[in-house]
């Protein structure tokens, strides 16, 4: 069985969508990968034929053990490459996801092993995300919550940001929201925006964007 870049991308995306708590169906993959519905249908047929995914009666997709192994290998490589780009080469945190998407398919097992020796394990990626499956409920169990749920006049520290939206990452970086930043909820506004205090300055952020930022309690 030949494992193509396309197959790797589909398998990794299923694992990533699961971690975001989304029900993974064909439409989910079309939206996450920005591909057409017919392309997703053909991909699902190939992945099912190769025993890499299961398709439930309701159309929900799940990874087989073989598919999970491939997805986890890609996720680990992606994670290591993001860390390499920031920790070794000093690339901005909001740029590294797209670079890693390209490089993860070309990394050899030997290079991956050397990255592990250099960087070690257990560290979050530059966006604050863990390499293993980490669902919204897992994050809540650690005492985290989405930024839009922070009570008024309360402070929190940014711990994780959804990394698949480059424009969102650039915007958040521009207003000072990045992993490790301290934020304070100043007001919840009528127009569905939030007023946050960052570095002593008030900034506006839409509730939809804030929902993609996870925060933890101030230490």
Task: Tell me what you see in this structure.
Strands 3-8-4-5-6-7 form a 6-stranded antiparallel beta sheet. It has a two-stranded antiparallel ribbon with strand order 1-2. Helix 1 crosses helix 4 and helix 2 packs across helix 3. The protein has 2 domains: 127 residues, Arc Repressor Mutant, subunit A, CATH 1.10.10.10; 80 residues, Ferrous iron transport protein A (FeoA) (SH3 type barrels). The longest helix has 24 residues. Helix content is 45%, strand content 17%. It has 219 residues and is an alpha+beta fold.
What about the largest sheet? Answer: 6 strands, antiparallel
Percent of residues in helices comes to: 40-55%
Any idea what the radius of gyration is? 19 Å
Structural class: alpha+beta
Number of distinct helices: 9
Query: How much of the sequence is in beta strands?
Result: 15-25%
Per CATH, which architecture of the largest domain? Orthogonal Bundle
Order of helices and strands: HHHEEHHHHEEHEEEHE
How many beta strands in the DSSP annotation? 8
Overall number of structural domains: 2
Shape: globular
Low-confidence stretches: none
Q: pLDDT average, as an integer?
A: 94
CATH superfamily heading of the largest domain: Winged helix-like DNA-binding domain superfamily/Winged helix DNA-binding domain
């Amino acid at each position: 069985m030949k494992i193509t870049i396309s197959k790797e991308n589909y398998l990794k995306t299923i694992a990533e969508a699961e971690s975001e708590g989304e029900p993974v169906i064909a439409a989910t993959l079309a939206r996450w990968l920005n591909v057409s519905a017919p392309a997703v249908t053909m991909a699902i047929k190939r992945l099912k034929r190769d025993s890499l995914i299961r398709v439930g009666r309701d159309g929900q997709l799940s990874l087989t053990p073989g598919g999970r192994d491939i997805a986890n290998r890609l996720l680990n490589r992606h994670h290591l490459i993001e860390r390499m780009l920031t920790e070794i080469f000093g690339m901005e945190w909001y740029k590294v996801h797209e670079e890693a998407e390209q490089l993860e398919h070309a990394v050899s097992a030997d290079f991956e092993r050397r990255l592990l020796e250099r960087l070690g394990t257990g560290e979050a990626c530059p966006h604050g995300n863990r390499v293993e499956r980490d669902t919204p409920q897992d994050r809540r169990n650690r005492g985290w919550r989405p930024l839009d749920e922070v009570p008024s006049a309360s402070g929190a520290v940014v711990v994780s940001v959804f990394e698949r939206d480059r424009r969102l990452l650039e915007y958040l970086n521009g207003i000072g929201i990045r992993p490790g930043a301290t934020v304070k909820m100043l007001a919840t506004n009528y127009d569905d925006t939030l007023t946050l205090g960052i570095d002593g300055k008030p900034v506006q952020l839409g509730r939809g964007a804030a929902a993609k930022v996870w925060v933890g309690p101030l230490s």
